[in-house]
Amino acid sequence: MSTYKALxxxxxxxxxxxxxxxxxxxxxxxxxxxxxxxxxxxxxxWASGGAVGTARTTAGAGTQTANVIMGGQGPTSNVxxxxxxxxxxxxxxxxxxxxxxxxxxxxxxxxxxxxxxxTTTALYDGTNWTTSGSLSTGRELLAGxxxxxxxxxxxxxxRGPETYTTAVESFxxxxxTSAPxxxxxxxxxxxxxxxxxxxxxxxxxxxxxxxxxxxxxxTTGNTRPYSAxxxxxxxxxxxxxNYGGNPSSGVQTTVEYDGTNWxxxxxxxxxxxxxxxxxxxxxxxxxxxxxxxxxxxxxxFSGTSxxxxxxxx
Length: 313
Prior knowledge:
Elements: H1 4-8, E1 13-15, E2 28-31, E3 36-48, E4 59-62, E5 67-72, E6 76-82, E7 87-90, E8 101-105, E9 108-112, E10 120-124, E11 129-134, E12 143-147, E13 150-154, E14 157-158, E15 163-164, E16 168-171, E17 176-179, E18 190-193, E19 198-201, E20 210-213, E21 218-220, E22 232-235, E23 240-243, E24 254-257, E25 262-265, E26 285-289, E27 298-310
């Protein structure tokens, strides 16, 4: 009779307390406190949401149920809000741009940068927009992360001459200042986390590189399972979700990061890049909307991880 080690390639470990369910999926262990075998089961999926009013590439902010997309291909200053079931048009941004970046929550969002070499920053309070501060260096396709009063704009593409910059700028709610640079110059990277615990991943020219910021410097993390720029994202440095990305035909891939390792999650139904993500969301509750070539499609990602006792007969 084959052993578990022979079949799976791992021994059954004994522990006095259960590991975290989200990161023990598929593992079997013996809990010496309850004297039971246990395993972690995760059930995640993408489901269709309400259609976006205007199909375009765009920048996004907010969560799965309180989201906002702004600007984008056209270029346009159009802004739409999502309430968890449907999109509605709201007040336009004060500037017109494609290839811009965004972060924050629906009632305290920000948009910045864009094509070509835009320095403008616009702040949204859930009703009205104001301009506040300018990037030191105008560029497009920056990785945006953080909140309206403590945000990063990382990397990006500078035109004339073409530059893939390593520059990072920090926004305090009114102005931008220089922050420690990335190790590698890319554009279209996906940002997650805060200005003291940041994650940027992927990017163009297409890469699977990951970098983490600890409040003082950037270090290289484990590579993402797929190479792509302009993916969408949600979550924090230690619990991030990346989904979609280039090429123009659109990537459906979805992966999760636990602060050390990446793991695969169910793919989106519609491949897309440069869509509206949910940077204020979580790795288990995320949103993807419009993008290229996503059309007006919106998808919602959700799921749970639970620990279950294994019964034997």
